[in-house]
Amino acid sequence: MKKDVLIIAAALAAALALGHPAAAVSSVVVDRVVAVVNDEIITMSDLQREAALKKAAEGKQDERLLLEDMIDRKLQMAAAKRAGMDVTDKELADAVADIMKRNSFDTKQFEAALAKEGLTLDQYKTELREQMTLSRMFNKYVRNGVAVNDTEVRAYYERNIKAYSLPEEIRVRQIYFRLPEKATSAQTAEVRERAMAALGRAKKGEDFTRLVRELSEGENASHGGDLGFMQRDQAIPEIQEAAKTLKAGEIAGPLLCAGGFNIIKLEEVRTPVMSFDKVKDEITKTLFEQKLENTYRTWLQTLRSDSNIENRL
Q: What letter would DSSP give residue 307?
C-alpha cells in the first residue's frame, strides 16, 4: 500500500500487535486509569497502544510525555466539539474517498490493504477523524493568528549576523619572478636576488602596485598583481602559509612557488556576510515556526487552565 494511506495504518497495526494475547505469555495486566480529563479517562491500555503506535513511527517514547500529549489531544477534541468544529461523517467519507482515489483503490482493495496491517476501516476512520479535527483546530486557533513582518526579519538578521558569515577571505598582490625551466643553481640564485631586491624596495615604502608593473613577470602584472579575494584555503599553499602571519598592508617573500619567486602583499582581510535578501526567506520560516510553537503552547495552556485534569501516572 502506498505511503500516504498507511502512515496511520502501519503504526496502529504495531499497537494492535503489542496488545495481542499472544504477546502476554503468562502474565495478565490489569487495566487502570492513568489520567482523567474533565469527564473522560485515559487508561493504561490506551497509553500502551499509543506508545506502540509512536514507537512504530518515531521510536521509543517517554510514557509521561506521551500521556501529556494524549491529554492535550483530548482537550483539543473536546474544544472542537464545543465549537462545532468536529469533523462530520460526510467530511470523513469525502476524505477517505479522496485517499482511495489518489491511491487508485476501490473499497475492497482499500479494506484488504488495511487488513494486511491489522486494521479495520472503522479503526482507520477513527484515527483519521481525530487527525482532521486536530488539524482544523490548529489552523483556526494557532496558524491563522501567526504572522511575521519584514521588521522582525531584519531585526533577527542583524542580531544574528555572525550566523550568516562566510569563510574569511584575503586579497593579495604579487610580484612574480619566473624561473627558467630546469633552472641551474646559478639561475635560481640570480632570480632570487632580483626578488630580494624588490622586497627591499617594497619594505622601504615604494608603491607596491608600481613595483608590480615595473618588475613582475606574472600574467596579472598589468592589473597590479592583484589576485583578487579568495578564501584562505583556496590560495597556493605557500601564499596561504605566509599570509597567516601578515596583517593588512604587510609584505612577505621571497616565496618559491608556481615556478618562480613571489613577493606578496596582503592588501585586505574580510569576512563576507550573506546578504539579507538571500537569507530573508529562511529567517521568515524560522521566525514563523517559533511563533507557531509559542502560540500553540499558549493555546494548550489556556485549554488546560480551563479544564479539570488528573495525571495519575
A: S
Query: What is the average pLDDT across 134-156?
Result: 95
The set of residues, in sequence order, having a beta carbon less than 8 Å from that of 281 and lying 6+ positions away, is: none
Q: What is the pTM of this model?
A: 0.66
Tell me which CATH code domain 3-147+287-311 carries.
Answer: 1.10.4030.10
Helix (H) or strand (E) holding 178: strand 169-178
Bigger pLDDT: 234 or 15? 234
Furthest CA-CA distance within the chain: 100
Integer angstrom CA distances of residue 77 from 30, 42, 113, 132, 300: 27, 14, 28, 10, 12
Which CATH code is given to the segment(s) 166-270? 3.10.50.40
29: which residues sit within 8 A by CB, 6+ positions away?
44, 45
Helix or strand run (H / E) with residue 91: helix 89-102
DSSP 8-state symbol, 168: P
- Calpha distance 306→313 (Å, rounded): 21
Nearest partner of 12 among 124, 100, 131, 113, judged by Cα: 124
Confidence of residue 8 (pLDDT cuts 50, 70, 90): very low
For residue 45, give Cα distances in angstroms to 127, 131, 170, 264.
17, 20, 65, 75
CA–CA distance, 296 with 190 (Å, rounded to integer): 76
User: Would you kindly state where each structural domain of the chain is located, as residue ranges?
Assistant: 3-147+287-311, 166-270
pLDDT at 168 over 60: yes
Q: Looking at beta carbons, which pairs linking 40-46 to residues 24 or more positions away fall under 8 Å? A: 40/74, 40/78, 42/67, 42/70, 42/71, 42/74, 45/19, 46/70
Reported as type and span, the H/E element at residue 214 is: helix 208-215
Strand 169-178 versus strand 40-43 pairing type: unpaired
Query: What is the rounded average pLDDT for all residues in the chain?
Result: 87
